[in-house]
Amino acid sequence: MLTRIDHVMICVPDLPKGIEQFRQLGFNMHPGGDHPGKGTHNAIAFNQDDYIELLAIRDRSEYGAGSGNAWTNLPEFIAAGGGIRYVVVQSDNLIADVAGMRSRGVDVSDAIEGGRRTPSGLELRWKAATLGAKNPLPIFFIEHLTPIETRRAQVPGSANHPNKVFTLERAYIVVENAEASAATYANVFGMPQPPLQRGTVIMSNMAVFQLGPNGLGIAQPSAPGPAADALARRGPGPFQALYHTTSMGAGARWMQEQGMAPLARGIRNTGEHAMLASPAVAGGAYIGFVGPE
Questions:
Q1: Across-strand partners of 286?
Q2: How does pLDDT run across 166-208, given as a tens digit for each residue?
Q3: Domain residue extents for the chain
Q4: Domain 165-290 -> CATH class
């Protein structure tokens, strides 16, 4: 069963600079470790049950030599501005979920074991499955083999960010046709297709899939705004992650103390107030915040 959004992968040209940007936004970012044989390395900010991953190329020659490297065209993606490359969906039984997808005609890989070693020497293990050429969506699937308590322990101060963020509320993928794209995602997920609703901050018509506690919005621009900007600048793909905070005021004060200009403000279709960091200050992604003042 698909249980939640596990994390968003934000690809950046320079990992230390990306870490600094997200620390200025109020996230406790920590080096995550190297991916052996892939030539990449990452940094992590852990929330209660999900996390942000910043990924960069560590060794260009090792990346190029990696056989079957899952992160294809990563240099080109980063050179075009970087940002959210994948939304990663968690499963509690990936072999069964892969079998279910294949029964619906979805082109998906086997569930393959992977892992990495953290700077402290902790071995993290998982299974992952990626979509094939017939379903080239910017998502992949993961089943963790390492318990969440152990994974949290790799990141000091997890879910204790200066911006008071505690969970991912929603991730957004911009598309040219929300109705048609949502039908494809519904088939992949094995879920009913949600009706379209209006997104008043990102200025879009969107279908929102509920994956456990998190939403995945398939958004078509309806007016000038973040969704239209992302589509014009990068084409279809993930462009925003929206995080719940217990205090938007605390986050705004922290960012001001770091010398950042105030973030743009908007009101969601739920009536909640939101703040939005632009790609220029958030590793090529839109990063939103929602919660009480």
A1: 240
A2: 999 999 999 999 999 999 999 999 999 999 999 999 999 999 9
A3: 2-153, 165-290
A4: alpha beta
